[in-house]
UniProtKB/TrEMBL annotation:
Pfam families: VEG (PF06257)
Lineage: Bacteria, Bacillati, Bacillota, Clostridia, Eubacteriales
PANTHER family in alphabetical order: PROTEIN VEG
Name of this protein: ABC transporter permease
Coiled-coil zones: 1-28
Keywords associated with the record: Coiled coil
Superkingdom of origin organism: Bacteria
Single GO biological process annotation from the record: regulation of DNA-templated transcription
Length: 89
């Protein structure tokens, strides 16, 4: 039996479950550069979601990602509190 392919709606529902929770993001900035940040999923919208990131001695930064970024594995999300809380498609 084949595994059913994930859709953008599946990703959106999963991200909505993480709203207000502290997450660790891993995102590809370019072909060879990868950055990791910790923040809180602040809002979910029809096409994107936002993450509020607070780093030492810097103002709060708000990053936005599309659900397709998660679906295509350009962005990976994991709950900070849970080791097994990561999801990927």
């Amino acid at each position: 039996m084949q595994k059913q392919k994930a859709t953008i709606m599946d990703v959106k529902r999963e991200v909505e479950n993480y709203r207000g929770k502290r997450v660790k993001l891993e995102a590809h900035k370019s072909k060879k550069k990868l950055y990791q940040k910790e923040g809180v999923i602040e809002g979910t919208y029809p096409s994107i979601f936002t993450v509020s990131v607070k780093e030492d001695k810097r103002p709060t930064q708000r990053l936005s990602f599309s659900y397709s970024d998660v679906l295509t594995k350009s962005v990976k999300i994991a709950l900070v509190d849970e080791v097994e809380g990561a999801f990927s498609y």
